[in-house]
Amino acid sequence: MSPARHPVSRRALLRYALAVGALALIGAPIAYLLGTRKGDLAARAAERLYAMSLQDAAGHQQPLMQWRGKYLVVNFWATWCAPCVEEMPQLDQLQRRFAPRNVAILGIGIETRERVQRFRDRLGLQLPLLAGGYDAMSLARDFGDNQEVLPYTVLLSTKGRLLRSRAGALRPGELESWLAALP
User: Fold this and answer.
1) In terms of pTM, does the model score above 0.85?
2) Is residue 39 situated within a structural domain?
3) Residue 94: left (phi > 0), alpha (psi -120 to 50), or beta?
4) Does residue 19 lie within any of the structural domains?
5) Are the C-beta atoms of 70 and 104 separated by less than 8 Å?
């Protein structure tokens, strides 16, 4: 037995069409503003990032301004985060491979400098690892990490515009494909 069909009146269809149209008229500007707001937040986050100076694993202050003008991959991580630890060797390898193409990859740990140093030494990493402390999570949040997921990776253009982001571990080959697609 097939379900009974209910006839729809023209008046009901007209109300439905008007409601959908009204939502589109209201929704489009809101979506635009939210998208613009997200872009504005990322632009402010990039400016904040470049204005920072953080200690590297060796204890030297590193002004992040030194990476302005490069494609910049920033990986927010922690020593206690298993996916973070797992993807670090890949980040280190890609840093060496893509450096000649004006790409820099760095990690900002939500750790103390001493923990970052022990981690770097244990894994024999060469990419810049900086100690951002827990305050670094607010920067990750400004780049879109609203759930405070680690690792969190962003790719910035040479002008500091957010090109890509990824909450959680990068899939095998994911970052490599991002970087290979750069001009």
Assistant:
1) no
2) no
3) alpha
4) no
5) yes
Residue 140 domain-assigned (yes or no): yes
Can you read off the two tokens belonging to residue 30? 């809101």
Q: What is the DSSP letter of 160?
A: S
The CATH number of the domain holding residue 108 is 3.40.30.10
* CB contact at 8 A, 154 and 162: yes
pLDDT digits (tens, 9 = 90+) for 3-32: 555 566 667 556 665 665 555 566 555 544
Smallest CA-to-CA distance from 90 within 129, 140, 64, 125 is with 125
Residue 74's DSSP bridge partners are 106, 154
For 13, 33, 154, the CA distances from 21, given in Å and listed in that order, are 12, 19, 37
The pLDDT tens digits of the residues spanning 40-95 come to 778 899 999 999 999 999 999 999 999 999 999 999 999 999 999 999 999 999 99
Q: What are the backbone dihedrals phi and psi of residue 21, each rounded to the nearest 5 degrees, phi first?
A: -60, -40
Contact indicator for 152, 84 with CB cutoff of 8 Å: no
Domain count, the chain: 1
Residue 40, in any domain of the structure: no
The whole domain housing 157 covers 49-180
